[in-house]
Structure formats: structure tokens, C-alpha cells
């Protein structure tokens, strides 16, 4: 898209376009190219943008990454144990059926949002997160258990959003 192409700038943008712009801003603040104040101001404008013309000036001084693939990745532990340290795998669907899935998420960057859908049936899922990670649990349990630590003190790091259901299973989140 060039600045002279007014029809491209008038194009209405999608939620995926806004999410890609948010990724650019998150990377820029993580790299030190934006302050947290600039990041917050631009992020508010990104989510309010309707057209490419609204979005363009917010990203003009930052390079654009490749489009984000929002197709969920899948990880299953069925009658087995799986150990992983996933990077850039959000959203990730994890399923433990009579097995265990152990994930190390300490490499999630400050400002990064990680989406996990965690489901277990007579299984166990264990997550290790950084000390400053914010863990938001939107899931539930039926004859199961979900143990999530409270919010960290100080400046928040990565945001880890959990959903899914434990049926006769267990979810444990530990801070490193």
C-alpha cells in the first residue's frame, strides 16, 4: 500500500488487522522503540481504528511483521507425558487424557499475550510461568482442580489467558 493509493487507505480493516498492529506495538515496546506510555496511547487508537488510513500513521515509524497466524496449535497427551517449552504458539490447545502435559512458558515476553485452552479428562496439566506473568483463568472444573497463583507484585510481564475445562483432572500453574 502506498500513500498515493487512497482507495487502499479507505479500506475498512478487520479484527485480524488490529491484532497484527497490536503485535507490532508489543514488539516495539519490548525492543525499547516505544515507551509504555506511547504503547498505551497507540494501542488505544489501534483498537479504535476503522480504516487503513486510521492505522497507517500509528505504525509508520515501526516495521511491520509478517501477519500473525491465529490458527490454534494443538498438543495432546493421551496415556502419556508431554514436556514442551512452546514459543510463539498462541493460541495453543492442550489436551491431557489419562496423561500429563507440562509446559514451560517462562520465555513469554513482557507485554505478550498468550492464549491457552487447557482441557483434561483424568489428566494433569502443569504450567510454569515467569514471576511477573499475569495469569487470567477463564476456565472451569468438574470434579477437578485448578490451582492458579495470584497476581504478581510490581510491573506485570506477559499476560497468559487460560480457558478450558478439567473433568476429573488437575491444572497447576507455578511461578518460576
From TrEMBL:
Domain DUF1707, residue spans: 12-62
Domain of life: Bacteria
Pfam families linked to this entry: DUF1707
UniProt-listed PANTHER family: DUF1707 DOMAIN-CONTAINING PROTEIN, MEMBRANE PROTEIN-RELATED
Protein name per its UniProtKB record: DUF1707 domain-containing protein
Upper taxonomic lineage: Bacteria, Bacillati, Actinomycetota, Actinomycetes, Pseudonocardiales
